[in-house]
C-alpha cells in the first residue's frame, strides 16, 4: 500500500495501529472518568464510542501483527525472537479482552439509551473494566517493546543468548 508516496507494509500498519488499544483506550478512559465525575451524559456517550473504536482496533492490530511476526522473525536474535513469541502470546490473550470490552461498551451505550437511569452504573462499570484492559494492553506492549529494544530488557539479559 502506498500512502503519500511511502510504501507501507504490514509492519508499518501494525506499528501505526497498535496505539489505539493502548493510548487510545487510555484517552477514552480519562474522558469517561471526567465525564462521569462531572455528570456529562453526552460526553460519557462519546467516551463509550471511543472505547468501542479503540478496543475494536485490536482486530486489525492482531491481523497486522500476525503478518509482521513472520517478517521480523529471521531478523531477530534469540532474545528478540523470545520477546516476539511472548508478545504474540500476550496479545492473543488480551485481544479477547478488548473484543469483550468493545461489546460491553456497545451494550452499555444501548442500555443508557433505553434506560437513562443506567448511566452511572454503565459508566462506573466501564471505567473499571477499561482500566483492567489498559493494564493488559500495557503488558502486551511491554513485551512488544523488548523485541527490538534491548535497553527495555531486564538487566543482564544479553542480545546474544
Please give a structural write-up.
- This protein has 161 residues and is an all-alpha fold.
- The chain has a single domain, classed as Four Helix Bundle (Hemerythrin (Met), subunit A), CATH 1.20.120.
- The chain has six helices and two strands, in the order E-E-H-H-H-H-H-H.
- Strands 1-2 form a two-stranded antiparallel ribbon.
- A hairpin with a 2-residue loop joins strand 1 and strand 2.
- Helix 2 runs antiparallel to helix 3, helix 4 packs antiparallel against helix 5 and helix 5 runs antiparallel to helix 6.
- The longest helix is centred in the middle third of the chain and has 37 residues.
- The relative contact order is 0.15.
Please write the string of helix (H) and strand (E) elements: EEHHHHHH
Helix/strand-derived class? mainly alpha
CATH architecture: Up-down Bundle
- The total of beta strands comes to 2
Number of helices: 6
Brief write-up:
The chain has one domain (2-152): Four Helix Bundle (Hemerythrin (Met), subunit A), CATH 1.20.120.
Features:
161 residues, mainly alpha, Four Helix Bundle (Hemerythrin (Met), subunit A), two-stranded antiparallel ribbon, 6 helices, 2 strands, 2% strand
Amino acid at each position: 500500500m502506498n500512502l503519500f508516496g511511502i510504501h507501507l507494509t504490514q509492519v508499518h500498519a501494525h506499528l501505526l495501529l497498535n496505539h489505539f488499544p493502548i493510548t487510545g483506550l487510555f484517552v477514552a478512559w480519562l474522558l469517561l472518568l471526567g465525564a462521569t465525575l462531572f455528570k456529562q451524559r453526552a460526553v460519557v456517550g462519546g467516551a463509550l464510542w471511543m472505547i468501542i473504536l479503540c478496543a475494536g482496533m485490536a482486530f486489525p492490530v492482531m491481523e497486522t501483527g500476525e503478518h509482521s511476526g513472520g517478517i521480523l522473525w529471521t531478523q531477530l536474535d534469540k532474545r528478540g525472537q523470545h520477546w516476539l513469541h511472548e508478545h504474540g502470546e500476550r496479545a492473543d490473550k488480551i485481544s479477547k479482552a478488548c473484543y469483550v470490552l468493545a461489546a460491553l461498551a456497545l451494550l452499555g451505550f444501548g442500555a443508557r439509551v433505553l434506560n437513562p437511569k443506567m448511566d452511572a452504573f454503565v459508566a462506573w462499570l466501564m471505567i473499571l473494566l477499561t482500566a483492567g484492559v489498559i493494564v493488559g494492553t500495557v503488558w502486551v506492549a511491554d513485551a512488544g517493546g523488548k523485541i527490538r529494544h534491548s535497553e527495555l530488557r531486564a538487566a543482564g539479559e544479553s542480545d546474544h543468548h
